[in-house]
Design a protein that fits this description.
Helix content: under 10%
Radius of gyration: 20 Å
Shape: globular
Structural class: mainly beta
Number of helices: 5
Distance between the termini: 15 Å
Number of strands: 28
Length: 371
């Protein structure tokens, strides 16, 4: 698993330097003002199927990894000045850069392992194996871009990283049946990345994997399998793999981290007051799971698994939300993976939400925790 001491890049870019080199330009996203009215929506398999009495077209293939297929949940959302939203608009704040001020990588280039000369084995990143392709996305590049709009074979894949929450999550970016690009909105919710899709301009919370403002409010993205791990372990397993290149079309201080010692300082929180929940330290890294309550399908149950506790035991078997969860430390990747044990005894991989504890418990204050 990733030690937080390895997250710190060589050298630090100060606040003004970060502003300059993130490329802050353009306009801020403006949210509607006024009194919020309530509206009820029905979400089935991650898609809004009824909202205000109108049917919304559902993609055929979306099955969010952390939800039960066939689930049907009724949710209450808000409408302000004709704009739907699922969280209070005052809780969505500007992080400094404007919309697309932190530029997504829309035409990523990749290097073979033997061509990479800018990473040492301790460097962390996101590892993705999909459609027979193995790729590694170093944090030292992602910290300056946060989003990579990539393609595996013929399938578009959305790579996202929120450095404030140490959250690397990979999605199927299907919106209204079409795989589309996403960008950075310049906004944060609970210190977490808020994205927007370039089809409907709706705003999406990374940690929720869900649209929180706009036409698509309440719709969820499918989470794809990935691991946050170090480059050394990844390249041993994937000698023919591909590594995201620093040739991004932007000029940035790759290899330096503008957030300095933020990752290890539990008192340093940006755009968040913290959770006040001391079951874990603010910057403890957890794997979060969201599943429907088997006794009340309109409610969700959440649980965070703390990797050091699982590594210490090697493997644990847990009962949660009516399911059997197997959490296993995988030595070859030095990371923890989660599985659901099905009734026939086979294991199905669970794609959790990796992030800091303060971020997870801020989004899900009633969460359970395994530590």
């Amino acid at each position: 698993m990733i030690s937080k001491s390895w997250i710190i890049g060589g050298g630090i870019v100060g606040g003004l330097g970060a502003a300059i080199f993130f490329g802050w330009s353009g306009g801020q996203v403006r949210l509607p003002k006024g009194e919020a009215k309530l509206e009820t929506i029905v979400v089935e398999d991650g898609q809004v199927v009824d909202s205000g009495g109108s049917e919304i077209i559902r993609p055929d293939k979306l099955t969010p990894a952390n939800k039960l297929i066939g689930s049907r949940v009724t949710k209450e959302i808000m409408v302000t000045d004709g704009v739907r939203h699922s969280v209070p608009l005052d809780d969505i704040v500007g992080g400094g850069p404007p919309k697309d001020g932190i530029p997504s990588i829309d035409k990523p280039k990749f290097l073979a392992v033997n061509q990479v000369d800018f990473l040492d084995d301790r460097e962390p990143g996101i590892a993705v194996s999909w459609q027979g392709i193995d790729r590694f996305y170093p944090f030292q590049i992602l910290v300056w871009h946060e989003i990579v709009n990539d393609v595996f074979g013929e399938q578009r894949v959305l790579i996202t990283y929120c450095p404030l929450c140490l959250a690397g999550i990979v999605f199927d970016p299907t919106v209204k049946g079409e795989a589309v690009e996403f960008g950075t909105s310049g906004k944060l919710w609970n210190s977490n990345l808020v994205m927007y899709d370039r089809k409907t301009d709706s705003m999406w919370s990374q940690i929720l994997g869900e649209a929180i403002v706009g036409e698509m409010t309440g719709t969820e993205l499918e989470v794809l399998p990935s691991d946050q791990m170090r480059y050394g372990e990844w390249k041993k397993l994937n000698p023919a793999g591909q590594v995201l290149s620093k040739d991004t079309g932007a000029t940035r201080f790759y290899g330096r981290d503008p957030y300095g010692d933020y990752y290890t300082d539990n008192s340093a929180l940006l755009f968040s007051k913290g959770s006040g929940d001391d079951r874990l330290e603010n910057k403890d890294f957890v794997l979060g799971v969201v599943w429907p309550d088997p006794d009340n399908p309109n409610q969700e149950l959440t649980k965070a698994y703390w990797p050091p506790a699982i590594k210490a035991k090697g493997e644990i078997v847990d009962k949660f939300a009516g399911r059997t969860v197997v959490a296993r430390y995988e030595a070859d990747i030095d990371a923890v993976r989660l599985f659901e044990r099905l009734t026939d005894g086979t294991l199905k991989r669970v794609n959790p939400v990796p992030n800091f504890w303060f971020s997870w418990v801020g989004a899900y204050p009633d969460t359970e925790v395994y530590k």
